[in-house]
Amino acid sequence: MKHRQWAAFRRRLNQDLLRHEQLHFDLTELSARRIRTQFEDLPRLCATPAGDGPISAAVADITGIVAASAVVVGTFVAFGRRRKILSEYHRQMDAKREELVAAIEQQLQHAIDLFYTEIGSVFSPLRAFCAAERRRFDPLLSRVREVEKTLAVLSAEIARSRQ
């Protein structure tokens, strides 16, 4: 049951992290589009009254290349950060899981120790009573055994004498 809960928690966490990283990607894409739009407007803004078309086209080409490069670099950076974040997340989760298991084991061991202490204290009077009764009845028990042996000997003698 706990394994299924942990798996569901990890799926939710992975989905949340994926949504978070998707947001980074979307923001990068939005910035790249804004830059691209500004670069596309650059030829119109830089055009001279004489209509220098080739210069405007060259500027537009350069701005397109820069914008595309920014998108590619942003994507690689976002995926690299995602990988680092996931790696750090897994490392921290493993450490916290080990911490939690150790704390639970310690609490369980303490509870078990308390249980045995309580059981021992509950049975301590009974143990003492039994020891006292044993000391009281041991001489009687020895005497009963002696009497049984004597009776066995007498019984054997009676059986021999009847024959």
Summarize this entry quickly.
This protein is an all-alpha fold. Helices cover 95% and strands 0% of the residues. The relative contact order is 0.05.
Explain how this protein is built:
With 163 residues, the chain is mostly helical. The chain has one domain. Helices cover 95% and strands 0% of the residues. The protein has two helices and no strands. It has helices at 2-46, 53-162. 1% of the residues are buried.
How many individual β-strands? 0
Low-confidence stretches: none
Structural class: mainly alpha
Instruction: Estimate the global geometry from the Cα principal axes.
Output: rod-shaped
Summed up, the domain count is 1
The residue fraction in helices comes out at over 70%
- The average pLDDT score comes to 81
Question: Main traits of this protein?
Answer:
single chain, 163 residues, mainly alpha, rod-shaped
Give the SSE layout.
Elements: H1 2-46, H2 53-162
